Amino acid sequence: MSKSKSKFHYAWLILIGLCVMVGLGKGALNNSAGLYLPPVAKDLEIGMGSLTLYLSISSIVTLIFLPIGGKMMAKYNTRMLLTIAIILQAGAFAAFGLMRSVWGWYILSIPLAVGGVFITVIAGPVLINQWFKKSNGLALGIMGAAGGAVGAIAQPVVGGLIANQGWSSAYIYVGLAVIVVVVPIILLILRNSPKEKGLLPYGAASSSAEGNPSNEEIEDKGVTMAVAKKSSAFYALAVFFFLITAIASFSIHIPTYLTNQGYSVTFAGNIMGIYMIGVLVGALVLGFLSDKLGAKNTSLLAMVLGIISVIMFLFFAESTLIIGIAAVILGFMASSIGTLAPTLTTALFGNKEYSQIYATASLGLAVASIVALPLYGYVYDFTGSYTTVLYAIIGMFIVNIIAIIIAFNGKKKLEDQGLWK
């Protein structure tokens, strides 16, 4: 296998392609769903609850399909899978524009979710894990930050389309545009592994020069799915995935929390903008730190920062400055879903069957998104405040710290038993 002497490694082109694909899949499709809800509900003369049921169906399909998608990524041609996936996701999104009954949203939410499993959840971490042996965390951080930036650009564009062209045309235009942009990127740029380009992963050549294992040995290092799912490390990681997503879900309730504290809607909107800045910066910083300090230490640091941010919300809500700082820190921590979750999976279980392990552990992400959002709302309805929720979130952070420690102790047991190889 030859090495490229060029300073520019093809892995960075892979990363650029992923930034566009994941950014459009999340920002232009998934995250813009809320913009369509009011006009669709009005025109179809249905309740918001009946319409948003399609989002619950989508979450359930995601939950079911995640482990299947992980196995398919390991078995089938990546470009073929991702091409089909974006056609399913963006095609279903475009087809929403042709629907005139809520049942259309219910039915199309199935291909929307199946395609989204590959485009927005699995593909990025799996391909970055294949292509980057050095700066893996930074690459994940860049993908997370760039994806957020693409989403930030797409949101006002989609809003403008809905206002000027109507929701039906907006669905069609956006869905088809995403297919037109993403399919060529998948076919012309994305590759499953460096072997397809006759290259070593980024950073692997320098590792070999230092006497470390060859590329083939690096790719095979770790444990199988069968071994992983019997370990305490796997279940601790699944708990981390679940709780970190449940914690991040609170961001949807921040505006309500602030208005309940006496702040204006305008102020709440500004704070959410600050929160998103924290998410973007956090993705880059946590990715960088995970390369320098390791996934374990960086994850523990993120959890401690999260506790500090919630304490600020609880005890210093009267200070606009501290609320702003708390929002930045909480956003910083929330970015760990896209950055630290994949790097923790690699650190704990290696590369051998990464896609299957990551996808199965990610079930916690899907379950949390279904459970946490309405649960926080019910607690608020019952108690009249979010105080109980915030104390519960501090508890979640503490449990996550314990889970990280248990996970790495579990990895050590696997190594001691000769199963991590």
Automatic annotation (TrEMBL):
It comes from the Bacteria. Keywords: Membrane, Transmembrane, Transmembrane helix, Transport. It is a multi-pass membrane protein. It is found in: Cell membrane. SUPFAM superfamilies: MFS general substrate transporter. The keyword DNA repair does not apply. InterPro entries: MFS (IPR011701), MFS_dom (IPR020846), MFS_trans_sf (IPR036259), Proton-linked_MCT (IPR050327). The chain crosses the membrane at residues 51-68, 80-99, 105-126, 138-158, 170-190, 234-255, 267-288, 300-317, 323-345, 357-377, 389-408. Residues 11-412 form the Major facilitator superfamily (MFS) profile domain. The keyword Zinc-finger does not apply. This is MFS transporter. It comes from Virgibacillus halodenitrificans (Bacillus halodenitrificans).
